[in-house]
Amino acid sequence: MKKTDSPDKRLRLYEILASVLIFAILIGWALALNLTAGDRELTAAQKRMFAVAEVTDVLADNASPDTWTEGRRIGQQLLEVKVLTGEHKGAVLEAANFLSAYANVDAKVGTKVIVRLDVDEQGELYVVSVPAYNRAPVMLGLALIFAALLVIIGRKKGVMALVGLVYTLACIWFIQVPMILRGAEPVLVSIIIVALTTAASLLFLTGLSRKTLCAVLGCVCGVGVAGIFAAVSGSISQLNGFNLPEAEDLVLRATQDTVRISGLLVSGILVASLGAVMDVAMSISSSCWELRQLNPGLPKAALFRSGMNIGRDAMGTMANTLILAFAGASLNTLLLFRIYGYPAIQLFNSDAIAVELIRGLAGSIGIILTVPLVAALSAALMPPAKGRPAKQR
Question: Whole-structure pTM over 0.85, yes or no?
Answer without folding.
Answer: no
